[in-house]
Structure prediction request, 907 residues.
Amino acid sequence: MMRRLALTVPLIASLWVSGCSEPGSVLTVYSPHGRDQLELFKEAFERANPGAEVQWVDMGSQEVLDRIRSERANPQADVWYGGTEELFGRAAAEGLLEPYRPRWADSVLPEARGPNDLYFGVYLTPAVITFNSDAVAREEAPQDWDDVLDSRWEGSVLVRDPMPSGTMRMIFQMIMYRGLEATGDTAAGYEWLRRLDAQTKEYVLNPAILYQKLARQEGLLTLWNLPDVLRVQAQGFPLDYIVPTSGTPVSVDAIAVVNGAESRELAEAFIEFVGSVEGQLLAVRSAYRNPTRTDLPIDSLPDWLIRVNQELRPMELDWDLLEARGREWMRYWDANIRGGG
Amino acid sequence: MSAWSGDAGRRLGPRDRLLMIAVFAILFWAVVYPNLVVLLGSLRGEEGFTLRHYAAFLGTASELRALWSSFWISALTVLLSALIGVPLALLFARYEFPGRRLLGALAAMPVLLPPLVGVIAILFLYGESGIATRLVQDILGLESPPWRLRGSGAILAVHAYSMYVYFYLFTLAGLARFDPAVFEAAASLGAGRFRTFARVTVPLLTPTLAGAALLTFMTSMASFSAPYVLGGGFRVMTTQIFNSKLQGETGMAMVETVMLAAVSLLVLWPLARWEGAREYVSPGKGTAPLRVPVKSRWAAIGVPAVAGAGVLLLVLPHLTLLLVSLVPDGSWTVQTLPPRYSLENYAQLFAEARTFRPILNSLFMAGGATIIAVVVAIVVGRLVVSWRVPGRRLLEGMLALPWALPGTVLAIALATTFSVNQPWVGRFVMVGTASILVMAYTLRVLPLTGRAVLAGFRQLDPSLEEAAASLGAGRWRTLRRITVPGLLPAIAAGASLAFVTGLGEFVASIVLYTHRTRPISIEILSQLRDFDLGAAAAYGVLLMVLVAGAFGLGQRWIQGQRVETG
Prediction:
């Protein structure tokens, strides 16, 4: 027994060690974009850069920030791919990002260029109202944010746990900002969120369980981001969306080099690739992303994108304010509003 | 104690002293020091020393409620687990009926479900659109689901399910040590069944029950998966810590950590004293306890039927996991049972190279942690039991301390301490490496190996070592040929439990993992995120099989050793 054990342990150990490739040829990407899109970009990037290996770790964008922060002394990620400006702004302020100006920097929308070249937006991600299309007819579904508070939806709203989710934070902060603009006080926004909490049947752990619960009609409505809804719809799930009539927040999904990245050159190459015409079209066609590049030929864009862009009414938000006060709002919500306080 | 150990106390040479000091230093550095760093961190703000974070904690009603919830949930978990585990153990230990051995083994099945996987399986079974829920709803013709798996009730149910095993196994082990003569004596003195139970069985079982209560309470305080997945708006301390850290509110996270650890220690201390104070020595010679065959006809059918039904209830989550792993993604929506089955999840799992990495990681990290924890336990056992060195209570305390510190606390303490490079105060950059995970696992399993090995040392007959020494065997030779073989059953018991715990570890891993070091539980979580419920379930089944294999191997080893030495 002991002898067999003595043979097995070094064997497993050597297998394990040989699995660790040397730095420089391995690119580690932290991203909330999900396996399908990440595998797609991994394959395309590795094809274009022979010898490079992409390792991705999938987590909520707020979790990416937390992780990069705790790994500051020994950074494990090279690229942070995906997340709202609120989060990238905070990371930039804490010195967690390294400036890099990609060649495509001038081809994207002006609002997609982060300060001091610390991050650049690659996708526009709008928030939408999402419903189960088996159980709710399109015309009956809420057409605007306030309709979600209607008494007929009481107990049938599902909400993804907002604390780790960039999308949910953006929606909540939009509500707070809207209230602040209208009344000059946070009370209006909190009141809206309190009413949403009363409508909410459950806060759901992660997006996967959210889709599952919606598909199984445990709830009928949620607030979520468009690309994910389109992707899940394409997988055959009975989900559909409404673009809110009064306008919707559109986050600029950004990308950045992590400060202290081990594979800096690969990180830059990856960012170049994601923002290139090829990379943007790949994301548009296979992952339902809305590109920030303004120079893509319109005939190369799919129909759904053209339709979405016609329907979409982006809501103006003050991202600096959200970055400064967003955390405080979320903390208040968690302590005093969630689950009736 | 025998004269031998007293002599050993005096024989402590300079090299032994060095060993003793080294062990003290290592345990202090690994177990106590990171927690001191957290304690100091909770008192520090940008302006220097501050009580600001504590004031904020005490001034927030939801924080205090979360702390209180953690406490009462844990207390109720202990009660519920005891109510399930103890009668079950009595049933299997005292009565002989057909199928007893098989059912008795199956009753420990919840051990095979690692925390996160277990919660997910229960969600599929009893969740709002779960199999059992829909079945009951269909049968009764209800409009809405008969129950909702949410909030404190759900957490309690999951806790009771996964933790009654401690009471079950501890009580079985305790009863096995009983001398049946004690019961015969009670009966011959005219005590009735109830009186015997109240005056003989319960007092004799007290240390065992205290030990199980301790383990259950600590595990429950530290429980993260159940409140994380099922809690909804219900707050406990572990989820508060996770959220505060996520928000980047380090000071608050540390205060929450300190408060949770403080409450745990406050409970650990009296319970540990209670456990230690009531050490009864059974005068018997280890005769096998007598099992009463069930006599009446009703009981002959009833007892196995009740036991069988109970056990079926216990393995339902395992079966659910297996079922879900056979369902192609997206095909199961509003039906009670899945409409289609296939092996595609397994095919996908085995086709992808990245599947095996987490498995190797977990095997290696859990294996490494187990080996280190066993070695540390043997050295401490030698110092504490055989040599009776000064400060032995402290040593034993440090070995058990990680128990009082929930996994989240431990992980945050390690991540905080080992994210800066200050070698002169013993702090090195370890975040982002596998070593910090091995360290975390080691600390988490140290109480398990420590408890088992120390108990083994206490049962070891010192005269064997004396004989070896008098026959001219050196110290090393005695250790290798006498002590360690004598300890093997205890080592195997501790090691298999430790290895199994390491394989399914989730709470500390989620704070410390990186891409290169991600363990199985994290991979399952990421598959869940990816909407690959089938693949996650298939992975869970794989993990379950691994855990069962490790556990079975450990059990066989224990029994094999018993046969050889006995």
Notes: Chain A touches chain B through 61 residues (CB under 8 Å). The two ends of chain A are 58 Å apart (CA to CA).
